[in-house]
Amino acid sequence: MKKGTVRGCQLSVCGWKERRVEWRKWGRVNRQPEQIRETFLEFRILQKGEGSGGRLGEIDTPHGKIRTPVFMPVGTQGSVKAVSPDELRQTGAEIILANTYHLYLRPGHKLIERLGGLHRFMGWDGPILTDSGGFQVYSLAKLRNISEQGVVFQSHLDGSKHFIGPEEAMDIQQSLGSDIVMAFDECVSYPAEYEYVQRSVDLTSRWAERCLAHMAGGKQALFGIVQGGVYPDLREKSAHDLVRLGLDGYALGGLAVGEDRETRLHIIRETVKMLPDDKPVYLMGVGAPEDLVESVPLGVDMFDCVMPTRNARNGTLFTTHGRMTIKNAQYSDDERPVDDQCDCYTCTHFSRAYLRHLFLARELLAYRLNTIHNLRYHARLMAGLREALKDGRMDEFKEAFYKAQEGNIEERGD
Amino acid sequence: MKKGTVRGCQLSVCGWKERRVEWRKWGRVNRQPEQIRETFLEFRILQKGEGSGGRLGEIDTPHGKIRTPVFMPVGTQGSVKAVSPDELRQTGAEIILANTYHLYLRPGHKLIERLGGLHRFMGWDGPILTDSGGFQVYSLAKLRNISEQGVVFQSHLDGSKHFIGPEEAMDIQQSLGSDIVMAFDECVSYPAEYEYVQRSVDLTSRWAERCLAHMAGGKQALFGIVQGGVYPDLREKSAHDLVRLGLDGYALGGLAVGEDRETRLHIIRETVKMLPDDKPVYLMGVGAPEDLVESVPLGVDMFDCVMPTRNARNGTLFTTHGRMTIKNAQYSDDERPVDDQCDCYTCTHFSRAYLRHLFLARELLAYRLNTIHNLRYHARLMAGLREALKDGRMDEFKEAFYKAQEGNIEERGD
Fold it and tell me: Which tops the pLDDT comparison, A47 or B24?
């Protein structure tokens, strides 16, 4: 497969060894021989969706297999808020995301490394993807100063001063020991001027190259992050720069940051086309059920978002029939489960009335039961999407998804 | 067995039927025939401890058996804070306490009754004891007005005005459907004048009689609460009044409210002697490990306290070697479990370093993992005390208990 090969090429299903050889060939074309490295991530496309281009796949990682398309719950500080690793697994989660920025600040990546890495520290033996810290540096930290070298910023916790550049981001993620690491990027706010985004895309490309060059040893796969805001040509430039590097996967960053839904879907559709067909595509920070249902047919393989967990703690539950605000008076003596289609611990053990009581009484159990349900909802939705891809009935699935929500009188609770 | 029979009498081990007959006989002596009722609680003493007078026993309730001496975790608002019913069971809990006052105010006892009772509402199928609401009316509510009839008070939640008397307390607990209900009492603050406590003891006795008279139908056992502050003769008067009523069990109330430890143990020792040997003795609101270890040999069968759960949420863990303040810097890279003797989920899965991190990061999982550990600690301590009673080696057990804590440099974390 040559550089620049895009979607629509022959279906690529190959084993570890062949895959590695092919990858090396491609690597040789674009980079210095000393940059060639083994890949520790194996992506297999099992089936392509009809028409629209979604795909059913599998990713092998050092910590097990992921079925794609997949939703990754967010474990910001080394814990998916309110649930235990056992429960997480029971909801159907196969991979989680952890935040480099947060863990770097507290408890510190070196401490986690000394204690055997993040998997062991948090008791999760499945795959972990860590983000680069780029997004949090821009969204959470104070007084950031961006230069060619990297970013100087102040901790949101105590105001202490820190520096993270591409090399530091790789070192931190290596200490954490995640299965998939993200290249350090600049995440531009929305809206942003074309010229700013243009310079930023170039910087992100140079940083990605430095990330790749710095990754020595370790069994980690490296994903690049396509930026470019809402400007199609800059997205193309960014994708082109990253694909040249022959990375293990490609993410779409800088979306769901305020742009309208049509624009977002357009950018996703066009950007995915610029990415190699045989690498996972990861849409960052997007997790509303409607967005998952719309993005999978566009060829997205991976998602992450705090929405199921954060909404749960705010009392908004996702159901087959739409969003449910559990504190509403209408549930005060409602004996039914949250979702009659759901098989989660919460739905099989507790009534809406009890969940409403727990939430109003601010009982800690409320946050957990709600979180279990929402994570299970997302896992079931992804399983449904995978089934639809397998059976070639995505249009039917989407129609049923929207139809089941008709008549839901509650407002959107995002 | 006659009225006034006290500890030291012949060991009473009898089955349901015999027990009931015997109880009726006793009842006939003291009360009007129309007050005679069946008992729905069967207490069997399996073995008496050597010398000091502790006893190993069993209580049968409509929701299963309890092994005594037992510690009851507190589920104030229909949830033992931070843990699920499944986890609660796994920690070894056999019975829990729920608060009448809280559940009456929110979500309301009538609602819980409509939804099938508290067991079903909260998903706990084991025995439940509900307190009378008396203690909370005095400790939480605003603007209370005590009369012969009962107490008028303002809700701590919204300031709304309410009335609870003996009959109301029984009705509420009947709606909740608990296995053991507590008679409505006045819990006097400490210190209190002799004359006030004297009047209060008499009021509590009259209220207990009204509670008993009001209890019609239902499969609930009724416990009286011995009050009397730190005045031995008033404790005796209170015990005498209640024992006359032939209740299913007797609680010691108004302790651990500020009196010193020696006084407390003295009151316990003397009061227990005034209670019938064949009924469970319940020490309310006491749960420090040292207090459990000292009170069991005095003949206490049941305890409840928020200490294990509240301390857990404050980051204080109970261990074989004494209390541990998990946020302390010394645990930052400590890979060991909280307690090397403990078999709980927390100790078998997570390090002190991780628990410290979760607590400092205010992760919800921290409160839960800490709670699981502390509840398991209390359950294991009670199991150890039961073993010691069985094997007649209580002194040895106590010695080992205190010896294991020697050299613990941490302060008390209550």
Answer: A47
* Bond into A127 cis (ω within 30): no
Block residue for tokens 């967990």: A309
Task: Give the residue from B74, B79, B106, B327 with the most A CB atoms within 10 Å of its CB, the best one to mutate.
Answer: B79
Is A260 designated active site?
Answer: no
Task: Say if B121 is an interface residue toward chain A (CB within 8 Å).
Answer: yes
Three-state DSSP class for B324? strand
Residue range A277-295, pLDDT digits in tens: 999 999 999 999 999 999 9
Q: Which CATH class is domain B32-305?
A: alpha beta
The reply to whether residue A353 touches residue B83, judged by beta carbons under 8 angstroms, is no
Dist. CA B220–CA B214, nearest whole Å:
12
* Residue of chain A whose Cα is closest to the Cα of B349: A123
Size of interface A-B (CB pairs under 8 A): 107
Query: Which pLDDT does position A150 carry in this prediction?
Result: 95
Give the active site residues of B.
Answer: 131, 304
Q: Cβ-count burial of B263 within 10 angstroms (0-12 exposed, 13-18 middle, 19+ buried)?
A: middle
**Chain A residue with the nearest C-alpha to that of B354:** A121
Task: Measure the CA–CA gap between A80 and A368, rounded to whole angstroms.
Answer: 10
Average pLDDT of the residues of chain B? 89
Are A84 and B361 within 8 A, CB to CB? no
Structural tokens at position B366: 């921290």
Which residues 38-77 of chain A have a CB within 8 Å of chain B? 77
Tokens 């520096």 belong to residue = A163
**Interchain proximity B364–A333, CB inside 8 Å:** no
CA–CA dist A306, A234 (Å, integer): 27
pLDDT digits 0-9 by tens, B341-351: 999 999 999 99
Query: CB-based contact (8 Å) between B107 and chain A?
Result: yes
Q: How far is residue A138's CA from residue A134's CA, in Å, rounded to a whole number? A: 7
| Residue ranges of chain A assigned to CATH 3.20.20.105 | 32-305
Chosen from A77, A89, A364, A367 to mutate, greatest number of chain B CBs within 10 A:
A364
Q: Flag whether pLDDT at A243 surpasses 90.
A: yes
- What is the distance between the alpha carbons of residues A238 and A205, in angstroms, rounded to a whole number? 7
Q: Which residues of A297-306 are buried (b: 16+ CB within 10 A; e: fewer)?
A: bbbbbbbbbb
Judged by CB atoms closer than 8 Å, whether chains meet at A333 and B83 is answered as no
Distance from CA of A350 to the nearest CA of B (A): 7
pLDDT score, position A42: 95
Interatomic CA distance for residues A140 and A163, integer angstroms: 14
User: Does residue B142 register a pLDDT over 80?
Assistant: no
Which residues lie below 8 Å from residue A393, measured CB to CB, with a gap of 6+? Answer: none
Q: What is the ipTM of this complex?
A: 0.90
Q: Which chain A residue is nearest to residue B122, measuring alpha carbons?
A: A354
Q: Tell me if A78 and B350 make a contact (CB, 8 A cut-off).
A: no
pTM of the predicted model, to two decimals? 0.91
Task: Give the bridge partners for A234, in sequence order.
Answer: none
Query: In this complex, do B364 and A364 lie within 8 Å of one another by their Cβ atoms?
Result: yes
Give the residue from B105, B354, B362, B369 with the most A CB atoms within 10 Å of its CB, the best one to mutate: B354
